[in-house]
Design a protein that fits this description.
heterodimer, A: about 475 residues, mainly alpha, 2 domains, 17 helices, B: about 240 residues, alpha/beta, 9 helices
Chain lengths: ~475, ~240
């Protein structure tokens, strides 16, 4: 054990003395992070929606290049041949390399997270799950990194083979390019690249409900990791003069295929747009508490009974900021990017003829219209989601008497779970995708937008 | 008495070619045993089998009574070795190498003592890649000694060394012998073999063709050791 510790520490020291290893191990992940941030720099928060991706890139880089390069270059120069003369089992040396690599990988990820936090990324929703997901994903890919190390004879071959795995995983494996941006055939193909499962498990821990919904992802990663480790152990060689037992490669690759087939059979191929389903609280969270020793006033029994006094009790300052990720809203004088103007025009043009926006019940009509703003918010549709609420507000004002609209908005905001929600599945006419899963998150965003418009019509929010 | 090394009918084939073909010999404690022969005779393959770098096809190897094939780690703990080429990480320093390698042995020699003994004190914190060829070979030797071995295996250790380093190495070998340790020395250098070895095995085409003291090998021939060995290995002038 002392020898293992010595060797691991030595591996770390030697890595820190290698300028290229440092650049590749630490700078490369940071560059990737900054790239993600730069793409979405107009909003301070979406970085968290890419956390699964940039952590997976870091793990993949370490597994496809860092680990095998270390092993292969040392084996090429006869270092491992010299190690073999030492009185220790072979696993000691492999374990030391893996331990050192795990430490390097963990520190690189921590550095990446630190920079992400500095750039405004919020704390992950499930930090403990994130740690577990990171460990499992690292195990999966380092296992395969060992296979690469055993398979090839020299460092250029590591680079070549590593790129053959790394790049497809990034481009069509759901790691760098979001699955929902990929065509259907690529979404199917991505099931055979374990990077997808790493991204999903990490992302569920960062912004979702945690690993309780990532059983398949974790199983897929564990199985690919075990297969890689077993294959690498069987292919292990101290000296490049000995040929690896390449047949064992079939086990590692076969597991990727088996996991992909299992995922296909479970219907996991097609991915809807990413949904940001974070809890936004209940309407009570946005109502100011009554003064001490006073009972809370009764809520109005119907929307027509809503008074200014009811509206004055809304704590508009508790609403998420317009510049944030939840219920974002453009400024009134803000000019959209020309690239999204056609999308906004399409929505504006389709609004008057949209049947759910013309139903006779004014409350249901307003609910339906607000869902047009809520869905792009849930789907994180980047620039578009900030401008759609303005179009909806204008339409609401056009189809609702001015004295009724504040009351209706108050009613919707205070009763987000009432009414029909079928309209949120009828947004194709606006060029908006359908959403999947429970409708409660959409109702939560409808509530927030109702509050935000109400605050502009009858409250303190500036209507700029 | 337990021999430091006992090799019995050792065989190893490389494809259809018998690189080592039924070799047997033994080395006693305090003995320097030379393995001489032309390139490709099977010296290095024999040594690689002894050290566990290559798996023999047949035969047995015992190091200080330990079956090296059944208990390779126990055998390696009693053995120090210098290969023809020693690979170490570029950035490792002599001190770090000795410390780390020493951690694998039950009773390692003191790193400072080894640095001093092998003239590496001044270079103790220099990166391996910055050492001269001679300094690298000194470090290889120091690493072979770090576990305080009962058996020292040297595969052409003086190849490429300057005369001073060669003399230093000979002194180290003599010191090992004086300390009761066994040395297996594979070399091309007849003078070196004659000066250091108590006994010599001449190997050709994977077989031992003669064994004896240098004096026994040349006795009655009137020729030099080099001529005798060239004759034995089929390379006579």
């Amino acid at each position: 054990m002392t020898a293992l510790l010595h060797l691991t520490l030595l591996g770390l020291k030697l890595n820190f003395r290698n300028r290229m290893a440092m650049l590749y191990g630490y700078l490369f992940p940071l560059i990737f992070l900054v790239a993600f941030w730069a793409v979405y720099r107009n909003d301070p928060v979406p970085l968290v929606l890419h956390l699964g991706q940039f952590l997976t890139v870091t793990i993949l880089g370490s597994a496809c290049f860092g680990l095998p390069t270390t092993i292969v270059s040392e084996r090429e120069r006869g270092v491992w041949r010299r190690y073999r003369l030492l009185p220790a089992p072979g696993w000691t040396f492999l374990a030391s390399v893996l331990l050192a690599r795990a430490v390097l990988l963990a520190t690189a990820a921590l550095l990446q997270l630190a920079l992400a936090f500095a750039l405004g990324m919020p704390w992950p929703t499930q930090p403990a799950d994130l740690l577990i997901a990171f460990a499992v994903a690292s195990f999966a890919f380092l296992g395969f990194g060992l296979v690469i190390a055993m398979l090839v004879d020299n460092v250029p071959a590591v680079q070549a083979l590593g790129q053959c795995i790394f790049l497809p995983m990034l481009m069509i494996g759901g790691v760098a390019v979001r699955l929902e941006s990929l065509p259907a055939w690529a979404q199917h193909l991505s099931l055979f690249f374990p990077g997808r499962y790493a991204v999903e498990a990490l992302q569920l821990s960062a912004t979702g409900a945690g690993l309780s919904g990532a059983g398949f992802d974790l199983a897929a990663l564990l199985l690919t990791g075990v297969a890689g480790a077993v294959a690498a152990a069987a292919m292990f060689r101290w000296d490049k003069a000995f040929a690896p037992r390449r047949a064992w490669l079939l086990l590692a690759i076969g597991m990727w295929v088996a996991v992909g087939v299992a995922a296909e059979m479970r219907g996991r191929a097609t991915v809807s747009a990413v949904q940001d389903t974070r809890e936004v609280g209940t309407s009570r969270d946005y109502v100011a508490a009554p003064p001490k020793q006073q009972a809370a006033p009764a809520l109005p029994a119907a929307w027509r009974e809503v008074t200014q006094a009811d509206m004055d009790r809304i704590a508009f300052d508790r609403l998420p900021p317009d510049e944030g990720i939840i219920s974002p809203l453009s400024r009134g004088d803000e000019v959209p990017d020309p690239a999204i103007v056609p999308s906004l025009d399409r929505i504006r043009d389709a609004l008057p003829g949209w049947a759910p926006g013309n139903v006779s019940d004014p409350v249901q009509r307003a609910r339906n219209l607000l869902s047009i703003a809520a869905v792009p918010d849930i789907l994180q549709m980047e620039q578009v989601e900030r401008f759609v609420p303005r179009l909806v507000f204008a339409r609401l004002q056009a189809v609702t008497p001015p004295r009724d609209l504040p009351k209706i908005l108050y009613w919707i905001a205070m009763h987000p779970d009432e009414g029909e929600d079928r309209a949120m599945h009828q947004l194709g006419v606006f060029g908006l995708p359908d959403i999947t899963g429970p409708t409660k998150p959409v109702r939560g965003r409808v509530m927030l937008y109702a509050f935000k418009l109400l605050g502009r019509l009858a409250g303190p929010l500036p209507n700029n | 008495m337990i021999q430091a090394l006992t090799v019995n009918t050792l065989s190893r084939r490389h494809g259809a070619v018998g690189a080592v073909d039924g070799i047997s010999f033994a080395i006693a404690a305090g003995e320097v045993f030379g393995l001489l022969g032309p390139n490709g005779a099977g010296k290095t393959t024999t040594i690689e089998c002894l050290l566990g770098l290559v798996r023999p096809d047949a035969g047995s190897i015992a190091i200080c009574g330990v079956d090296a094939r059944a208990q390779p780690r126990a055998a390696r703990a009693r053995t120090g070795a210098v290969l023809q080429v020693t690979g170490l990480p570029d950035k490792i320093t002599p001190r770090e190498a000795l410390d780390v390698f020493g951690a694998f042995y039950p009773s390692p020699l003191n790193t400072n003592v080894l640095l001093e003994r092998f003239g590496l004190r001044e270079k103790q914190d220099a990166a391996y890649e910055s050492l001269s060829g001679g300094q690298k070979q000194r470090l290889a030797l120091a690493l072979a000694f770090v576990g305080d071995p009962q058996l020292l295996v040297l595969d052409e250790p003086t190849a490429g060394l300057d005369p001073q380093m060669r003399r230093e190495l000979h002194d180290h070998i003599r010191a090992m012998k004086a300390a009761g340790r066994a040395v297996l020395l594979a070399t091309h250098d007849m003078d070196e073999a004659q000066a250091l070895c108590d006994r010599i095995a001449v190997i050709a085409a994977g077989r031992i063709v003669a064994t004896g003291t240098p004096a026994e090998l040349i006795a009655g021939s009137g020729a030099s050791l080099e001529d005798v060995i060239l004759t034995l290995t089929g390379g006579a002038r």
